[in-house]
Amino acid sequence: MTEKKLRIVSGMRPTGRLHLGHKKGVLDNWLNLQKEQECLFFVADWHALTTDYAQPEIVGKTIWDMVIDWLAVGVDPNKSTIFIQSEVPEHAELHLLFSFMTPLPWLERVPTYKDQIEKLREKDLGTYGFLGYPLLQAADILMYQANGVPVGEDQVPHVELTREVARRFNHLYRKPDQPLFPEPESLLMPTAKMPGLDGQKMSKSYGNTIELAEEWKVTEKKVKTMPTDPARMRRDDPGTPEKCPVWDFHKTFSTEVEREELRDGCTSASIGCLDCKKVLLTHLEEELQPIRQRRADLVIHMDDVRDIVRSGNERARVLAGRTMDKVRRSLKMNYRV
């Protein structure tokens, strides 16, 4: 017997151009999951408004760039369902119904709530929508009766909340032997810690990214001007790789043999920083140029891209409709005409 596929649900907020950090931290895991499991990947445009509600135009500018990046990286619409969250209004209905039965302390204790308010203090996040976004996530996941959610460690509490919501709904509205919602598992994904060009975490807010869509000459210039070990003031000064942001990139992209050679060359000053960067550029070119070529082709065929998303929206609506029929019956709302 073949093992039954898990149903996986994951989304990404359209808040800006995708970069190498997104590819290494999220998209590479999606590509592995779609080989073996039933995957639904969605553009979380409503989630983007929880923090960027004052600038909703960002969402519209970003959605199609993001979908094109997904497809260029290798997300396969023949293996995965790609859709836009707001095109399936059942998400909002289920979120609303969950809000009636979810205790307020469950939301207030989610660790990322206070953490994000502190980190994004320049924004007014004292809103109902921001407090409730983990519940909208729960609706996104449970709508498709997902078995697994790919997450990093910081997102595990969100999946735990989803499990609690599923458990509470089943307890309140279903017979013990007939639960509607499965309790999804957190699928802890291997994540490459992708540093930025300056050694900090790669983030558009730090201006230290390599975007998936940028031209090669832009990437090349960024790498050539990356800061290096400050102790290497001159070409013949020995360096310490661990103090150099370029070395962090080599940990992700270069082979073990190459790293040993680069370490020896750096610490003995037998190679210069530009030599080290040339090796990195070779790997980045191998990684990025095929994606950018596929991306250019997708931009030319935007009608095909829109058809892929339109088809995904339709499939997601069918699945969501089935779930909401069961939810309404569970809530004795079958009086609706």
Keywords:
elongated, two-stranded parallel ribbon, 2 domains, 13 helices, 337 residues, Tyrosyl-Transfer RNA Synthetase, 3-stranded parallel β-sheet
In CATH, the topology of the largest domain is named Rossmann fold
Rg over CA atoms = 23 Å
Mean pLDDT, to the nearest integer, reads 94
Beta-strand content bin:
5-15%
CATH architecture of the largest domain: 3-Layer(aba) Sandwich
Low-confidence stretches: none
Order of helices and strands: EHEHHEHHHHEHEHHHHH
DSSP E strands, number? 5
The biggest sheet, with number of strands, parallel, antiparallel or mixed sense and barrel status, is: 3 strands, parallel
Structural class assignment:
mainly alpha
> Helical residue percent?
55-70%
Alpha plus pi helix count: 13
Q: What is the assembly state of the chains in this entry?
A: single chain
What this model shows, in words?
- By secondary structure, the chain is mainly α.
- It folds into 2 domains: 7-194 and 302-330, Rossmann fold; 214-296, Tyrosyl-Transfer RNA Synthetase.
- It is 56% helix and 7% strand.
- It has 13 helices and 5 strands.
- It has helices at residues 20-36, 45-52, 57-73, 90-101, 104-108, 111-119, 128-143, 156-173, 216-224, 245-253, 256-268, 273-300, 302-330; strands spanning 7-12, 38-43, 80-84, 148-151, 185-188.
- The chain has a 3-stranded parallel beta sheet.
- Strand 1 (7-12), helix 1 and strand 2 (38-43) form a beta-alpha-beta unit.
- The model has no long low-confidence stretch (mean pLDDT 94).
